[in-house]
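Training component of the fellowship. As part of building independent skills, the fellow (R.M.) carried out the full modelling exercise for a liganded target. The chosen ligand was uridine-5'-diphosphate. The inputs are recorded below so that the supervisory panel can assess the work.
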Amino acid sequence: MDTQIRHRLVLILPPFQGHLTPMLHLATILHSKGFSITIASHDNFNSPNPSNHPNFSFLPLFYGLSETQISSKNFVDITVTLNTKCVSPLKELLVDQIEKANTSHEKIACVIYDGLMYSIDSVARELKLPSIVLRTTSATNFLTYHAFLQRQSRGCLPLQDCMSLDMVPELEPLGFKDLQPLRFKDLPMFNSHVMQQQITKTLAIRPSLGVICNTVNCLEDKSLCRLHDLYEISVFPIGPLHMMAEEDSTSSSCVEEDYSCIGWLNNQATKSVLYVSLGSIASWDEKELTEVAWGLANSKQKFLWVIRPGTINDVSEWLESLPKEVKMAIEERGCIVKWAPQREVLAHQGVGGFWSHCGWNSTLESLCEGVPIMCQPYFGDQRVNARLLSHVWKVGLEWSNVIERNEIEGTVRRLMVNEEGKEMAQRAFKLKNEIRLAVKAGSSYDALNGLVKRILSLNL
Ligand code: UDP
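Fellow's submitted model of the complex:
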């Protein structure tokens, strides 16, 4: 009889596309290292399809979100509710899992949760379960939280004008001196009391096994060094997670992907297409969409444009209402879909640029394929990422962000036609190769092996 104890990991998914995708990739990576995987996820809001992940066990977790909250898309409000309402159902779920493991030669080796879900820290501690936090934003973004706390403790809040071009003094010693430090304008907006409380809470988490960062040394070595100094716990930069899990071709998308755009891309010239997408939360209103349509049409470039359902009431009606010349340009040079298989799109040879909101997943996915970015950050970490893209790695275009047709036409041409864009594409190509090396046999590969050893060492 096989008496060897199997190690099971319980991963808790938050119901946001940009957070659950990296967590599922992490699950795939750790499964390939021999761990059994249980995923606890919300059962009726942004939950992945279990049949896409036959190697994992799925358990529903009650998060207590109301329909109104779900449709409000109020990220901060939803996160507060997740943290207050998930505690007791999660405790029950984990106790049940511990009991089941005891009767089946298994051990719950670790609970892994997203840094958004700070309240899980105390649950793991109470149940004496080892824990790991996954940080799904850049390490540099995480450092801005520390800067926020430092300023708060010195009474320097609220952060001055959020459009100020002054450098943030707390971030200057963070290794950016030679690389243009972050300005107040680049910080996430910590502008509500609730948000400030959340930052304080997420920074207070002390998971017993350490922190996983979805990043890679060659992109953020200085910020990672600083994080190592600030934390008394281990930091494992094992990203980009989607590349580390590359053998996994299953989709973690909450929305059905429209593959017809790949057929359309197959008929386009190499690097001729601009891919336009603002991720799963940010959006343009109808007036802005019309300016974008005009700008894209006038740029004379090919484009693949994601307009998510719910962005406006009726996309076909809006398209119909556009002037004839714009409609014709869209027909001749454009392809519009509701949701694209983004990683395949960015890997396609037809794509030469990405107009992005600079979410961290989109940023990493673009960097991994060597695609330069036209940066249009909205909120949260997107402004930090845009600054890294444009001023540190120099593969992103900073522009006015004014949604006006002439401005858009000019900026699209800067990226897709001008020398400036070509130089960015060359740097992006170099960076892509460095990242791939780190994943195959470099820093991320080593950090993953270190993480696996750490989980096993506490569970012998
Ligand atoms: N995405 C996709 N198809 C689309 C738009 C987005 O698959 O049409 C995916 C994208 O690949 C990324 C995620 O949605 O993995 C968006 O995450 P990100 O962190 O970039 O932004 P967020 O949605 O969290 O703002």
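The panel noted the following from the submitted structure. The mean pLDDT is 91. The pocket of uridine-5'-diphosphate is lined by residues 17-18, 21, 253, 277, 279-281, 306, 339-340, 342-343, 359-362, 365 (CB under 6 Å).
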